[in-house]
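Quick note —
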Amino acid sequence: MTAPVLTVFDLDHTLISKNISFAFGSHLWRAGHIRLFSALYCTGCYFRHKFVRPSMQKLHRKVLGKVLHRLPFRRLQDQFERFLDKNLDQLLYLPAVGRLREAQERGDHVMLLSGSPDFLVGPTARRLGVEDWGGTCYLVDKNDRLSTIEAFMEGRAKAKRVLARANTLRLKMIHAFSDSAV
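Predicted structure written out below.
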C-alpha cells in the first residue's frame, strides 16, 4: 500500500474566483442585513488591506468590531447558505476545482485552509466534499453574536496545520494550490 498524498487548497482566489468574505458582505448588504455605511466601511477596510497591506488580523478585527458582532450568528449562517445556493457555481474557479476533483478521485487526503472566517469556510468545504478544513476561528457568545477571534488561519498557522496533518499520515507527497505563498 502506498502512503497517502496530502493535497491542500486555499479558498479565496483559488477554488473561489473572488474573496468569499467580500462577496458575502455584498450579499448581506443587498439582502438588507447590513446598512450601506457598514458595507462601505467593510469595502474600505478590504481595499486598504489589498493595496496598503495592513495585516489580515487587523481586517478581521475591524469588520468584526464594526459590523459582524451586531448580527445574530444564526442569521449569518442562514444567509451564507442562501448565498451559496445562489452564487457558488458562478464563484467557482473551474481549473482549481478540477484539480480538487482529481485529488478526491485519486484518494488523496484533501484539506481546504483559508484565512476567511470559519463560518464561511466550513459550509463551502462541505459543499465541495472536503471534510478536513480550517479558517479563521470566530467565537460565538451566549447572545448568539460573534464575540471574538480565537485563532487566525494565515501564513505560519496554515503551514503548522499542514505539517501537523502530515505528521499524522505517512505521506508520500504534499501538493498545495494557493494564490499566495505560505
